[in-house]
Amino acid sequence: MKILEILKSEPDETVQKMIEVHKAEHDVKVVKLYEGADYDSLVDDIFEADKVVSWW
Amino acid sequence: MADKLGIMVSSDKHLDHVVGLTKAAINKGKEVHVFFTGVGVKLCPDPKAQELVKAGAKVSLCDKTYQGLGVNKEHGDKVEGMEHGSQDDNADIIEEVDRYVVF
Amino acid sequence: MPKTVVFLSKSSDGFVQEEASRSALGTMLKGHEPSLMILDVDYDVERGEVEENLEWIIDSDGIVVSNNQANVDKSEFIEYMSVEDMAKKMLEYDVIVPY
Question: Which residue among A14, A51, A52 places its CB closest to the CB of C83?
Answer without folding.
Answer: A14
